UniProtKB/TrEMBL annotation:
<keyword id="KW-0238">DNA-binding</keyword>
<keyword id="KW-0805">Transcription regulation</keyword>
<dbReference type="InterPro" id="IPR036390">
    <property type="entry name" value="WH_DNA-bd_sf"/>
</dbReference>
<dbReference type="GO" id="GO:0003677">
    <property type="term" value="F:DNA binding"/>
</dbReference>
<dbReference type="InterPro" id="IPR000524">
    <property type="entry name" value="Tscrpt_reg_HTH_GntR"/>
</dbReference>
<dbReference type="InterPro" id="IPR036388">
    <property type="entry name" value="WH-like_DNA-bd_sf"/>
</dbReference>
<protein>
    <submittedName>
        <fullName>GntR family transcriptional regulator</fullName>
    </submittedName>
</protein>
<keyword id="KW-0804">Transcription</keyword>
<dbReference type="Pfam" id="PF00392">
    <property type="entry name" value="GntR"/>
</dbReference>
<dbReference type="GO" id="GO:0003700">
    <property type="term" value="F:DNA-binding transcription factor activity"/>
</dbReference>
<feature type="domain" description="HTH gntR-type">
    <location>
        <begin position="6"/>
        <end position="74"/>
    </location>
</feature>
Length: 123
């Protein structure tokens, strides 16, 4: 599950984020401990802790002293909002820029996307 080329602590944070977005881990419920992440991925607990602490800094997780880390209320909404902006910057912007170079209007791009979606859903 750990992929080369990306820091492990980033992958741990992304795994937790994905589980929150997907509803696997709900708001106000605990996340696995850093020791559990470390044992599962066979990594140093400090590395796992760095990924968890990154989410604490972002307000996605919070610590209940003596109990563990929990998903903050509103975390899913914040993550979806941030990911939506990343999607816009990484994919939509470049897509529209390339379309403009080719003389394709945003409306034509939308039609292409709709047609592609229809074709893939009937396959």
């Amino acid at each position: 599950m750990i992929e080369a080329g990306k820091p492990i602590f980033v992958q741990i944070a992304e795994q937790i984020e994905n589980d929150i977005i997907d509803g696997v881990i709900e708001e106000e419920t605990p996340v696995p401990s850093t020791n559990e992440f470390a044992a599962f991925h066979r990594i140093n607990p400090a590395t796992a802790g760095k990924g968890v602490n990154r989410l604490v800094e972002d307000g996605i997780l919070y610590k209940r002293r003596g109990i563990g880390m929990f998903v903050a209320t509103g975390a899913r909404q914040r993550l979806v909002g941030a990911r939506t902006e990343q999607f816009r910057a990484n994919f939509v912007g470049p897509l529209l820029s390339e379309a403009a170079k080719l003389g394709i209007t945003p409306e034509q791009v939308a039609t292409m996307i709709s047609e592609s979606e229809r074709k893939s859903s009937t396959s």
